[in-house]
Amino acid sequence: MVTLNHLSVEDPDDGSSQLPEVAEAATPTPAFHRKKTIPKTDSRDFFLSRQENLFLSLALLIGCYSAILIPAYLSSYQEEAISDDYQHPKDLVLINRSASLLSGPCLPHWCLNHLKHLSCSVGLQNIPVFVQRERPEPWNLPPPLGFQGSEEHLAVALASLPQPGLPPSLKRQGSCRRCVVMGSGGILHGSHLGSHIDQYDIIIRLNNAPLHGFERDVGSRTTIRLLYPEGASHSSNEYKKTSMIAVVVFKSLDLDWLTSVVTKQPLSFWSKMWFWKEVVDNITLTPESFKILHPEIIHKTGQVIQKYEMNQRNVMPTIGVSAVVMALQLCDQVSLAGFGYDMQHPEARLHYYEARRMDSMNSQVVHDIMAEKLFLKDLVAAGVVTDLTGGV
């Protein structure tokens, strides 16, 4: 038996043994109980190595993120650039069709000559376009088919218009004119037709269909914007390159609104309450720029559409198809762009300027869009008008 006279326990971090040499000689320690000798290091080296590890870790982390994120960013950037510059083959077809039409000479009286051969078009020729002060007429129908019951409102509105009738710039004076009627269909989205649209002599647009931000697809100027008060844009940008506003009157109050906009005299609060939507108070155009669409345009258009209706509901024609009939009175050649409701694809874009889908048209009961489409198809098939975007 061996007695240990002295047991010395020292700081294990200083690298010394825990037992004196005499004890080690007397009692051998099993190999697995022996403590490995650790060399002594400076604390500054220890902390320096920690900093180096930290920096190395950060460098590796940043490198990994860079390797992942930078290629992804560059890829998305390139895809965005490609989407801006690349044109779908369908878009190229539209552009080529439009370019071919514009490159040829304007053909005088083209629409009227072809309209004669279309049986459904009886009554669509020689319709007055704008209401004139010099030709008072007996109105046998209420708005929008006439002005019965709104004669006083009409008289006040006409008195506020310096040039209520057809301006000299739109009268047929021997020069051949090409018109394009711009619908608001989603088919215009990504069409790249803007520069072609601006080349037409007369550009007709509808309600609040915007140009600002969509010039590449729909052009940048407007000859006539056909609208009703609730459909007028509240943005002054939409009137900067507009020559004319033609108001479609659906009620007497629409005439009061026109008078208010022209004379800069605001409507009363009570009058504004009768609009189904907030109306704009000011349109930055001169009084000479405002017109009143002749109700015969709506009336005659409705009579033709009724021939295509399956259930004879006598619904009101849309402003779009009425604008086409108006264009037939003003122009030698008429083209359409952005027309046609594709009800077979309910998920398709309804308008070029918003995210609404085609199936939202199923809930409306005011217009017979299928009857109108059949009418437009006949116009295109007979060569009366040209459908630039192929939606009809």
N-to-C series of helices and strands: HHHHHEHEHEEHHEHHEHE
Per CATH, which architecture? Alpha-Beta Complex
What is the radius of gyration? 39 Å
The average pLDDT score comes to 81
* Arrangement of strands in the largest sheet: 5-4-3-2-1-6-7
Question: Helix segment count?
Answer: 12
- Helix/sheet category: alpha/beta
Q: Give the CA-CA distance, first to last residue.
A: 113 Å
Q: The biggest beta sheet, please? A: 7 strands, parallel
Cα shape = globular
CATH homology-level superfamily: Glycosyl transferase family 29
Helix content, binned percent: 25-40%
How many strand units?
7
CATH class: Alpha Beta
Q: How many structural domains can be distinguished in the coordinates?
A: 1
Oligomerization state: single chain
Strand content: 5-15%
The CATH topology:
sialyltransferase cstii, chain A
Low-confidence stretches: 1-38, 71-87
